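Can anyone check this?
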Amino acid sequence: MATVQISTQTKTVFWALVIAAFVGFVLLFQNILAPFVLGIVIAYLLNPIVIRVAHFGMPRWAVVLGILALFMGLVVLIIAMIVPVLIREIVQMSDDLPTWITSAQITMVEFANKFGLAIDPAEIAGNLQGQAGQILKAGKGLLAGLMAGGVAIASFITFVFLMPIVAFYMMVDWPRLTSKVDELLPKNRAATIHDLLGQIDRTLAGFIRGQLSVCLILGLMYGVGLSLIGLKFGFLIGMTAGILSIMPYVGSAIGLVLSTGVAWFTTHDWGLVGMAIIVFVVGQIVEGNFLTPKLVGGNVGLHPLWIIFALMAGGALAGFVGLLIAVPVAAVIGVMVRFALGEYKKSEYYTK
């Protein structure tokens, strides 16, 4: 039986259609994909633990059920401990915002008077209040959009129940799913594809399992540290900096600016400003010398700018679901680009 030769052009068109179909699917169903994507992410994170425990001879479904229950219990415990504090500080911050505006107005007027600049205090106050109003309006619009977009009570309950169900079935069926995918790989390219998949897995494991752990630990370090030095809204600022640390350096920089700004506007105490700076300097030392080397390691291979671009592009294209899949897609693209460059350097286009 004759073997059908497929041209490079046909292969290119085929993979372009596959990518277009994937993007179209995400954009079309982005409003309902979040629990499925999060369930798959949880399954990916916990699957190595399931494999190790299952080696002791226990049924895989029982291992999955136990590990998933422990994981969800830990998540609920963390949320129960952190969310009330965050809500309290958010409410307090909204109450203190008018006072901050007045303080900022006085500071700007005093600064301008030192340099002989003629400014209208009423105009400054109007501008600051206008900006604050825009921020509050945007926040209310965001909340309204979330409610209208399906994160109402019923949808939230569906989300909470559906996510662990997806994770359970994904972990139980993980060996069968990977076996089916392996059967579909082109036989003459299977070794190369396995190598690429291994690189993608190491990149994702290093970033998702490692970086998420770093973000949580940093957020708690910053939040507790800022609270201990007596900074108002310190826990909120610290957790925000930790979450934003998924983009390397960005979270710490934003947290440093926010904490020093709040320290000055609320107390005008340079000592508190200095202590806030020390908290973030210590956090960066711990992250750079202990957390990142131990938890993330050197297998990530994702440049910070590439991560930032991927998150921004994912959020712009597909909202929350886009943010969830941004890093995995960036990891796949990064591995494929490195592979393409390696093949190019071995080709006649480069050597001749």
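Reply from J.R.: I decoded it. The CA atoms of residues 194 and 273 lie 52 Å apart.
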